[in-house]
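pinging the channel bc i need a second pair of eyes. not urgent but kinda urgent?? the chain im working w is below, pasted from the shared doc
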Amino acid sequence: MLRSLWTSASGMIAQQTHLDVVTHNLANVNTTGYKKRRADFEDLMYQVNKEPGAPVEPDGVVPTGIQVGLGTRVVATPSFMREGSYQVTDNDLDWVIAGEDAYFQVMLPNGNVAYTRAGAWHLDDQGQIVSEDGLLLEPAVIVPENARAIDVSPSGVISILNVDNEMEEIGQIELARFVNPAGLRAMGDRIFLRSDSSGEPIVGNPGEDGMPEIQQGAIEMSNVQVVEEMVEMIIAQRAYEANSKGIQTADELLRIANGLKR
């Protein structure tokens, strides 16, 4: 009975983490470039009271044995990198990566490169293209003061319309992709860092070597589906209730055992 208390407690802790992940997804349902996460579970170690296949007399073996599990825990919270829906803005500095598993590159204040799907860009006081958090696009692009319009081709070439009404090329967008994008380390602010699990970034121009193209004048919204998250919330709630019922039942059995009289 004590074992069942701890087993049910592990289930309640796991479902609390499950609910934390679901509510985080719902909180970011309108966050541009956000990628939903899922809680994955695994069973804990087993107490083996009788080994499967143990010999028994005269010439038989135990077919299944006795193995009692000790609960569950959350083993991973992977991101789902599928595309979110597009929102057309007609803004020259709003860009969408038209495909999965590729990222814009931004430069962090410490000099490291980070990765993001958020494609809403701005100009700083020096004309540099920066993210909404002020991180420089990598490689850096500076828009001249006399630019009358900005154009981004599907292949990531950034051009401006100058005062002479001529298109002038000023930079090139480079995208990065990873062998295991789910292994990227989430840093918040919609940016990711490479990890040993994700592997090294594979950098290339949009539309080349399997890289997706760029679409100007739109942003990628969150890929969270509210209905899916509401279903997950119900599942987490019911599983939490079931595990709490297990604790109540084990407690009741212990009360009965403690009340036995000779």
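so The chain is about 25% helix and 30% strand. and The chain has a mean pLDDT of 91. — does that match what u expected or am i reading it wrong
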